[in-house]
Amino acid sequence: QCVLTQPPSVSGAPGQRVTISCSGCTSNIGTGYDVHWYQQIPGTAPKLLIYGDNNRPSGVPDRFSGSKSGTSASLAITGLQIEDEADYYCQSYDSSLSGVIFGGGTKLTVL
Amino acid sequence: QVQLHQWGAGLLKPSETLSLTCAVYGGSFRGYYWSWIRQPPGKGPEWIGEISHSGSPNYNPSLKSRVTISVDTSNNQFSLKLTSVTAPDTAVYYCARGSAAGPRGVDYWGQGNLVTVSS
User: Fold this and answer.
1) For residue A40, which of A5, A72, A13, A75 has the smallest C-alpha distance?
2) Strand pairing category for B11-12 and B113-117
C-alpha cells in the first residue's frame, strides 16, 4: 500500500523560500493523477491552495506554486510571511486503493 | 459566494449511526460533486466519499460497508450516514464542494462538525 509521504515539519524566516515535498508512487502521483494542496490553520477547515498540480484558485497569492515530477510533487512558498504558518496537506487519487488519499501533513513554522 | 452549512448530532454512543446534513447556498448545485471528509483530532484529513448532483456516489473502500451519501437536489442538500460507529470514528467531519479525485480538488468547505463517539 502506497501512501503520500510529507515531511512532518519545515521552517523558514520571513521573506525566505520553502518547499514541501509529497512523495507517492506509481499507483497515484506516478500515474498522472492530479495533485492538490490544502492549507489549514488550526481550528479551521482546510483551504484549497493548489489544484491540478500547479493551478491557483482565485485569491491565492502567486507566492504559492505547485509542481510534479515522476512520483513526487512539491509545494513552493516564496516570500514567506507570518500568516503562512499553518499545516499543509497534499492529496491525490490512488488506483490501487480506488480512492482519494491525503498526505500526512507538514507543519510550516515561520521563524 | 458559495457557502456550505452542516449540522448533525455531535455525541454518539458506540454502535449508533452518525448522521450529518449539508446545505449549499449560492452558486449552482448541479454540475458538481459533493464530498464528505473527516479529520481525527491531531491527524490529517481522510476522504469518506462523494456524490454527484445526479446521485452517483463513490466511497472510500475502507468505509464503504458503513457509509451512505445521498443528495436532495430540490433543497440543495446532501447527507452522510455512517453506521455502527466506534471510537476511531471520532473526528471533525466536513462537507465540501468538488471531487477530490477530480482535476479541481475540493474548493469550498463547511464549517466542520466535531463528532465524538463515547460510551
Assistant:
1) A75
2) parallel
Buried b / exposed e along A83-102 (16+ C-beta atoms within 10 A):
ebebbbbbbbbbeebebbbb
> How far A50 CA lies from chain B's nearest CA (Å)?
8
3-state SS record for chain B: CCEEEEEECCEECCCCCEEEEEEEECCCCCCCEEEEEEECCCCCCEEEEEEECCCCEEECCCCCCCEEEEEEHHHCEEEEEECCCCHHHCEEEEEEECCCCCCCCCCEECCCEEEEECC
Phi, psi (5° rounding) for residue A84? -80, -10
CA–CA min distance B107, chain A (Å): 5
Contacts of A34 in chain B (CB under 8 A): 102-103, 105
What's the CA gap between A72 and A55, in Å, rounded? 16
Q: pLDDT digit string (tens) for B25-66?
A: 998 898 899 999 999 999 999 999 999 988 889 999 999 999
